[in-house]
């Protein structure tokens, strides 16, 4: 005699029981996997393009992100305040701090020296500020120098590093090339060869931001 319940109600009961057991197994497996993952320390992949971030001297690491010229001006002030506080309040030195200021989006234009502004000032100036003038109004004269040259040089002299967005630089090179009748790759090479002191070209500013956090940098966003 077959003792298995072949009734619909019995089959439903059996299937329900199997379903609960299966779900319990999945939940247990998932919990075990999470526990095993937490047991080990997360180690992000390392790339040669980011190695310079790990090579900077300093016991405290700070990454200051900017995407506008006003933001970069404030970032330089923040960097100076941090250095001054380390020297004054903590009785340390500038070398105790590893500070990176990221120049991306509209602030990318400030990553290039006065020679580039003298050469490509009309495009760099237009890209570094939003169109605030009234329609039909006369355009402001093209700047012939980087407005933050002195502040950048002063910060660099104290060890501040600059991450310059190559994605924005490539876009900028194309715009300059179209307006001046030049080759975009030649303009790009010209810009990369004429950066501000302590500059590092990074594939994308937003990527540098994420990589810096993986290396353990504190993050600070500088708004305009």
Q: Overview of this structure, please?
A:
With about 220 residues, the chain is an alpha/beta fold. It has a single domain, classed as DsrEFH-like (Hypothetical Protein Ychn, Chain: A, 3-Layer(aba) Sandwich). Helices cover about 50% and strands about 10% of the residues. It has eight helices and five strands, in the order ααβαβααβααβαβ. A five-stranded parallel beta sheet has the order 4-3-2-1-5, sandwiched between helices. Strand 1, helix 3 and strand 2 (about 95-105) form a beta-alpha-beta unit. It is globular and about 60 Å long. The model is unreliable at about 10-30 (pLDDT under 50).
- The name CATH uses for the topology is Hypothetical Protein Ychn, Chain: A
Structural class: alpha/beta
Which term fits the overall shape? globular
**Which residue ranges are poorly predicted, with pLDDT under 50 across at least 5 consecutive positions?**
10-28
How many domains make up the 3D coordinates?
1
Output the helix-strand order: HHEHEHHEHHEHE
CATH class reads Alpha Beta
**Helical coverage, percent range:** 40-55%
Strand content: 5-15%
Number of strands: 5
Give the name of the CATH architecture.
3-Layer(aba) Sandwich
Radius of gyration: 27 Å
